[in-house]
Amino acid sequence: MRRDPRDGGVARGDLIWLMRPDGTDAHAITEDPDVLHGMPIWSPDGRYLLFQRYSLSEPLSYPSIWILEAESGDLRKVVEAGYLPGWLP
Considering the entire predicted model, what is its pTM? Predict the structure, then answer.
């Protein structure tokens, strides 16, 4: 994770970025600067990334759990109110 450098140094939320091991082809997979994105964890086969989202514009809301399919880039919410995403063995 890193702050989005496109915002002129004023960063609110954390974005999740993907890149090659050598640091090239870096791109954000999350776009909303008013959301904290965190706790990313890859599936054992490397096909999916599970992570938590928390809205900064709704401070009394609960975090939600989202999943990204790495190959397609498909993002979807899997848990409406959830904490600490993880994969079961």
Answer: 0.78
